[in-house]
Amino acid sequence: MVAERVREDLVKAARMYFLDGASQQEIASVLGTSRSNVSRMLAAAREQGIVEIRIIDGTERRDTLEAELKQRFGLHDCQVAAHTPGSTPAQTVSKLSSQWLLDNIQDGQRLALSWGTALQAMVWSVTASRQYDVEVVQLVGGLSAVDAGVTGQELVRELATRLGARYRYLHAPALVANLGAVEAFLSERSVSSALDAAKSADIAFVGVGTYGDSSSAAIIDAMALSPADRAELDAMSPAGDICARYYDINGAPVASRAVHDHVIAVDLDDLRRVPMVVGVTSGRVKAPGLVGALRGGHLDVLICDEAAARAALALDAATPRLGTEGM
């Protein structure tokens, strides 16, 4: 009788996790046990044949584009999703990026996330079969100017829940109008320690923005720059941003203090020191931001769709790199 009840609990835990999408903590609350025990129950369900997992990878990849991007920009890895009828580019890229995450993270690591719709899709595609001993942290503060569902805090919490991991918030907004307030936030131990944790991440997952488009444009609008400051920024020809840090088509940071000094996030130099930075994006419109990020060496791994890949390669070929004009 005891063995039968145990099996019933294993079936219930497996059904809630794999079919209903419940987190391990939610299952633990229902069953009156610990999250770590739920992880063991799920493993036991697989061992006893209660759960059978089949991997059907319906995401076709473009090997030629992957090889060209790796060779041209010296990437550690690159995955390019082919167009799949019935799926959006964001959906195909989210499948590749979430699987890359599960294939590469290791216990004891620290993962850092920026924000945005591409990372939101990635996080919601993550389905872990075990609990990971990792910590998930934010690269950039909360962004009130965009949908709350794509902000750093929401994504960090959701990913940690799906991995059975720990997480740490960066208790500060991304954008602060008053410089005195920025300094006050940075002087807070909780904020400075959270930023230090992000800087010491083992893997960082970042979205890639294009200047003037979508959320990248929303950041600039939220800054409420004066006409003079906005004209100065436009004159610097920003191409894109990562973590609300803007750079030009060659990847050089845009030196606008009116923008840089009002953002609470790691900067591009901090990001460069992270051992593995993974860029996740899709769409032709991302080409300028993507080319700048690749030329600047801000990414070690790129996961995108074929439209973004082809557009980026074409733009790179058509746009002289710094110091190559006339060659």
UniProtKB/TrEMBL annotation:
<comment type="similarity">
    <text>Belongs to the SorC transcriptional regulatory family.</text>
</comment>
<dbReference type="InterPro" id="IPR007324">
    <property type="entry name" value="Sugar-bd_dom_put"/>
</dbReference>
<dbReference type="InterPro" id="IPR036388">
    <property type="entry name" value="WH-like_DNA-bd_sf"/>
</dbReference>
<protein>
    <recommendedName>
        <fullName>HTH crp-type domain-containing protein</fullName>
    </recommendedName>
</protein>
<dbReference type="InterPro" id="IPR051054">
    <property type="entry name" value="SorC_transcr_regulators"/>
</dbReference>
<dbReference type="InterPro" id="IPR012318">
    <property type="entry name" value="HTH_CRP"/>
</dbReference>
<keyword id="KW-0805">Transcription regulation</keyword>
<dbReference type="GO" id="GO:0003677">
    <property type="term" value="F:DNA binding"/>
</dbReference>
<keyword id="KW-0804">Transcription</keyword>
<dbReference type="InterPro" id="IPR009057">
    <property type="entry name" value="Homeodomain-like_sf"/>
</dbReference>
<keyword id="KW-0238">DNA-binding</keyword>
<dbReference type="GO" id="GO:0006355">
    <property type="term" value="P:regulation of DNA-templated transcription"/>
</dbReference>
<feature type="domain" description="HTH crp-type">
    <location>
        <begin position="1"/>
        <end position="60"/>
    </location>
</feature>
<dbReference type="GO" id="GO:0030246">
    <property type="term" value="F:carbohydrate binding"/>
</dbReference>
<dbReference type="InterPro" id="IPR037171">
    <property type="entry name" value="NagB/RpiA_transferase-like"/>
</dbReference>
<dbReference type="Pfam" id="PF13545">
    <property type="entry name" value="HTH_Crp_2"/>
</dbReference>
<dbReference type="Pfam" id="PF04198">
    <property type="entry name" value="Sugar-bind"/>
</dbReference>
